[in-house]
Amino acid sequence: MSRVHVTCTINGDPAEFLCDGGQTLLDALRDEAGLTGAKEGCGTGDCGACSVVMDGRLLCSCLVLAPEAEGATISTVEGMAAGDDLHPLQQCFLEGAALQCGVCTPGFLVAAKALLDRNPDPTETEVRYGLAGNLCRCTGYDKIVRSVLAAAQTVNES
Amino acid sequence: MTVTESKPRYKYVGTRPVRHDGLEKVTGRARFAADLNLSGQLHGIVVRSPHAHARIVSIDTSKAEAMDGVKAVITGDDFPAVDPSNRNYDMCVNIMARHKVFYEGHAVAAVAASTRDQARAAAAAIEVAYEVLPAAMTIDEALAPGAPVLHDHMMTKGADPPATEPSNVSDITRFAAGDLDAGFAEADLVIEREYTTKPVHQGYIEPHACVADTGQDGHTTIWCSSQGHFNVRSSSAAMLGWENTRIRVIPAEIGGGFGGKTTIYLEPLAVALSAKAGRPVKMVMTRDEVFRATGPAPGTKLKVKLGARRDGTLVAGDAYLIYSGGAYAGSGGLLGAMTVFESYNIANFGVESLNVVVNTARSAAYRAPAAPLTAFAIETMLDEIATELGIDALDLRLANAVAEGDPSTMGFPFARIGFTECLEAVRDHPHYSAPLGPNQGRGLAAGYWFNIGESSSATVNLNEDGTATVVTGSPDIGGSRASMALMAAEELGIDPLDIRPVVGDTEAVGFTDVTEGSRATFATGMAVVEACRTMVAELRGRAAKMMGTDIDDIDWVDGQAVYTGSDGDKAPLSVAAICAKAKRTGGPLTATGSLEAHGAGPGFAVHLCDVEVDPETGVVRVVRYTASQDAGTAIHPSYVEGQIQGGVAQGVGWALNEEYIYDSDGVMENPGFLDYRVPVASDLPMIDAVIVEVPNPAHPYGVRGVGETGIVPPIPAVANAINDATGCRLRNLPMSPVRVLEAITANGGSDG
User: Fold this and answer.
1) CATH code assigned at A108
2) Chain B interface includes A155 (CB < 8 A)
3) pTM for the complete prediction?
């Protein structure tokens, strides 16, 4: 079976890769584009560890076929920091100890950024429901929620 | 909030620096096992049994071997034969079945091919003929007369009289003290209760993964995610029949373990495939495989009887505990027996516990193994006793709580422990007296875990610029590297951010046991401190040479060598100054510490939980949670809080939602996070972690393990809160909406 050529934009840069027709976007990002920040925790869209933003929509990249990325604009955790400057969410996660094992962290950061992009000043409840598609088994979510609220404040004050 | 006993003032210990591995983890650069790819790598896929119990009649791999891209196929025949008398027997035949399969998901073959799709297609083409056998899926089925016996060699250990026929009971543990009959005769109140719980999964977000690269010289390198890479080495060597020196294991970042990654599943398969193919082989489990084939915690049946005097003094306890270990002998029974009566002074007790095998995946450790379930029984029964006797539930626990010098179940006296302090911390917390809303209830529960020591090694290397590298053998599953750096910083007087804590591979650091039993910061921390103290002695000697004086005239003060002799003033020398002259004073500055750690201080916790119960649906929401826990000394308080909060969340999931569900053929029906529902952010409130610090006298900084105790109280805390809200006693897990609703509407206040 011949492979599919996909041209897209990943984290602001033009990108192209070859993929199988049945390959997921997650596998293409990890195996073809070399971006292993997004993780596979379940492969069924239940854990959010593979969260990316495609054309402005937060989604589980394990549920998207790679050829669907043709012409799309994709953001992953690798694109959150601007050079040496961490995104306020990344900085707040570090300072707030919002990660333990860290395997869910890329998905949480991408999902939290998507949340703050559409709701810059969320309540605690809005953060909890906004991140309900991301599983963390280590932290009990307390420090994640606090760090997202702290990041929102940082962004709004700057 | 931290409750602190008087303790030494530290400069770095107890501070909250950004963790050293944090930046890589928030930028997506951290390398977990599945993130690694080697040149020429193949992909390995496991063929798994569709049956819960069956004899393997034949395996035909010929079609698969002829398929495109297939480079190696293995079955049980590719590994040395192993006998039930071998202590690694269960592990070996669990990793790859020989002759029989014992659960749906049991590995029977594996294949490596150039692509994952090719490997999957080849796995599907392997033809396995089974003779399906009747299965025993539950404790009741396994113990019933005429039950299918899983293992012909399983003669119950500890049976009295000795077993003469094989059965599904692997072992019986008995502990006793005092006079049970006299104790119950002395009691004014005796209650007896029965509980059942289902297997639950640790639920780490990262599935098991490894890459193995075996060279033509017969040596292999394994990159993997595990809680102990030295154990991966020795276990793989045992399965392969190799010497340890032929295997190097390099730890990747680990994406959660909670006990489930203290054992191995994939690594020897990847090595065998790699050896056969002459290429590196990568294996990554799917979530479905993780659920079907890896470590659930045991399901249980518990029967406990407690006797108390009218004043609340506990005088007698009798427990009969059954733990299902899955397909092979488990350890839940022993650990249940060790924990059931441990938290309270009960002069007369008897415990009998059984480990039973059933046709489900082999159980693995899960955070304070067995203890959350014994706590479920004891802590809910204490609430019933308190109500019956008209005594405050917290006062009842204070009156019976073990303290320094009291005997443990095993007979030895407790050293200094902080149970009473944890109870007092909760009593003094504003949550304790806060008003409750409609349909809300409050539950209190305590928990205990003994923690362990074991072997640890550490190497401290000072660099030319005065910074330091600390290498240990403990995989970091929750921030332990930061704690190692903080203790080294305190010893050496170097800023923690100038110390690089590293988890070394099996050829880079001395032997270190698995990260389990909440031992990393305790035991490996002790090895780091020992290495640092050896280093400080060396630094004093080097400074003496530089000053032209004797080592006895040099003290180590605040990270500097200070001259205390009488020969005038000499400027103190910093670590950096000594490092700069190392070549002239004796060469590189390196020191090691390795030890068998003793005195892991028991960890106690007391939790307070508010729930709101919807009387129409039976849905239980946790609306407020406060958790106190004795950490001894919190080295990095943020990560101590994180351990407590994470344990609470897992415990709440165990209490309310989580369970393995099988169909009538023994096939798991909920092997995904959609149907096996772990708590999400919107299920939980903030979790107020109250760190109590009663230093452990056996550790140089007073550390107690903190990783596990936090999962022990939540199940009874939630159950007691549900009872407070509804008047219903639930004694079967999970306390799902349907069970709660039944209890409220139909069963007159209990679930069966």
Assistant:
1) 1.10.150.120
2) no
3) 0.97
